[in-house]
């Protein structure tokens, strides 16, 4: 009864994130014990499975202001899909630790689960502060994961490129959030019908779109994608192409519909242009590649454009 009451409370909305984050600490406190056994992969899979169960159990809640998250059918579905992508990545890692030359196994699983926590925060965010925290938690973990093959120069290069480009995009995202706060006096995305369109609001949308477009890998913000996907371990590439894209798409969907009351002509045009560019550049560039990873990287750019069509097509 106490467990049911906890899940029904506002704090219970954080249960999936708390389960993963607290459970992942086991990799830090057990030393090399988990690494010497197969328990490292089993624990990671179990934690994600628990998160999926909790996602299916927590009721719909809107907690705007005090906690800054929302749980509804869409957020729950995207959260489960993100956990599914993480499971694919973890299963791939457990069978390819040696071939991927990943030496820091405990740290690898800890960072993967931390990145998943950040992605779930992005999916459930109801205000811009929570969204930014989720973006940074996921990004910081992924910067390290891209360099997991510490003996490979290509992996280190991918990590550095992703870090530098990620910092650049985060600055735009933060600047857009600051403009939003200056225009509305609030960090909440739930404006209702009170939004007054002004040049500051339009510039805020464009800055936030740039920051999230980087995470989605939309053209022309995709230049990091081929090099990072090629240099990172295959399991990390899987994680970024699935989990990160789902989280970024959920964030962009909420920002567009809740905060900026899409569809509006000025927002519709920007999204339409990015969608066309991503599909065109991604597919044409993929045709010229000889490396499978680089081909899949450009294909993911095109897929991001296809995802954006779902938002653009809602104009009617």
The beta-strand count equals 2
Query: Nearest-angstrom radius of gyration?
Result: 19 Å
As laid out across the biggest beta sheet, the strand order is 1-2
Quote the beta fraction. under 5%
**Mean pLDDT across all amino acids:** 83
Structural class based on helices, strands and sheet pairing: mainly alpha
The low-confidence parts are none
Distance between the termini: 46 Å
Q: N-to-C SSE series?
A: HHHHHEEHHHHHHHHH
Helix content: over 70%
**Gross geometry:** globular
Describe the largest sheet: 2 strands, antiparallel
* Oligomeric grouping of the chains: single chain
Secondary structure tally, helices: 14
Describe this structure in words.
This protein is globular. The protein contains 14 helices and two strands; from the N terminus they run H-H-H-H-H-E-E-H-H-H-H-H-H-H-H-H. The longest helix has 32 residues, at 153-184. It is mostly helical. Helix 2 runs antiparallel to helix 7 (105-124) and helix 9 packs antiparallel against helix 10 (199-216). The model has no long low-confidence stretch (mean pLDDT 83).
């Amino acid at each position: 009864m106490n467990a049911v009451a906890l899940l029904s409370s506002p704090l219970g909305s954080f249960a999936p994130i708390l389960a993963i984050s607290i459970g992942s600490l086991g990799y830090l406190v057990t030393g090399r014990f988990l690494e010497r056994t197969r328990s490292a992969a089993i624990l990671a899979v179990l934690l994600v499975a628990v998160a999926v169960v909790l996602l299916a159990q927590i009721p719909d809640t809107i907690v705007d202001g005090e906690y800054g998250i929302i749980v509804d059918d869409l957020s729950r579905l995207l959260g489960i899909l993100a956990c599914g992508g993480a499971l694919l990545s973890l299963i791939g890692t457990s069978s390819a630790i040696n071939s991927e030359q990943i030496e820091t196994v405990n740290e690898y699983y800890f960072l993967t689960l931390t990145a998943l926590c950040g992605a779930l925060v992005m999916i459930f965010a109801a205000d811009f502060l929570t969204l930014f925290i989720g973006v940074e938690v996921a990004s910081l973990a992924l910067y390290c994961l891209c360099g997991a093959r510490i003996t490979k120069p290509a992996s280190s290069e991918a990590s550095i490129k992703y870090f530098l480009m990620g910092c650049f995009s985060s600055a735009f995202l933060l600047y857009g959030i600051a403009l939003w706060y200056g225009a509305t006096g609030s960090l909440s995305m739930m404006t209702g019908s009170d939004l007054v369109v002004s040049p500051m609001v339009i510039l805020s949308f464009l800055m936030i779109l740039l920051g999230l477009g980087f995470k989605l890998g939309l053209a022309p913000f995709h230049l990091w994608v081929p090099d990072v996907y090629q240099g990172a371990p295959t399991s990390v590439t899987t994680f970024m192409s699935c989990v990160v894209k789902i989280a970024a798409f959920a964030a962009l969907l909420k920002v567009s519909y809740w905060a900026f009351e899409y569809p509006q002509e000025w927002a519709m045009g920007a999204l339409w242009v990015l969608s066309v560019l991503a599909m065109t550049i991604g597919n044409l560039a993929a045709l010229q590649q000889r490396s499978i990873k680089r081909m899949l990287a450009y294909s993911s750019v095109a897929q991001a454009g296809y995802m954006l069509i779902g938002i653009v097509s809602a104009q009617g």
